[in-house]
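Hello support,

Our group uses your service weekly, and this is the first time we've seen a run hang past the timeout. The protein is Transposase Tc1-like domain-containing protein. I'm not sure whether the cause is the sequence or the server load. Input pasted verbatim:
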Amino acid sequence: MPNRIRKKDGKQRPVSDITRRLIKREVLNGSLRTAKEVHLKLEELGYSMSYQSAINVLHSVKIFAEIKKKKPLLTVQHKKARLAWDKKHQYWTIDNWRRVIFSDETKINIWGSDGCKYYWKRKVDRLHPHHIEVTVKHGGGGCFAK
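Update from on-call engineer: The timeout came from a worker crash unrelated to the input. Re-ran successfully.
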């Protein structure tokens, strides 16, 4: 009977399966939030590799980068005020809404940008709090122009 154990050809993976599962678990529970943190964690565990290799480790365990959703910070007071407003205007007619004036405004940044921030997750996962970039009014230094 021929030997049924196949030799593994080609280059071996630089990161063990146990370490891959550890990285996957820490990214999904929010302990590691960025690819840079994953890269530093792998170096801490003794794996000398490039930043791109750390990203490849994430991809190998089916974790991909997505752009963070920007959502306003809602306190309990904000939520109560919204509910009260909704109840007050619940039975407005179309004519009532036609009398409301909606204005357009444009934000101009003075410092920094509102550029993309990324998070890592599996494609089938739902959003978690660390996947959202919380925003507040007047929080970044900018002005509005009509």
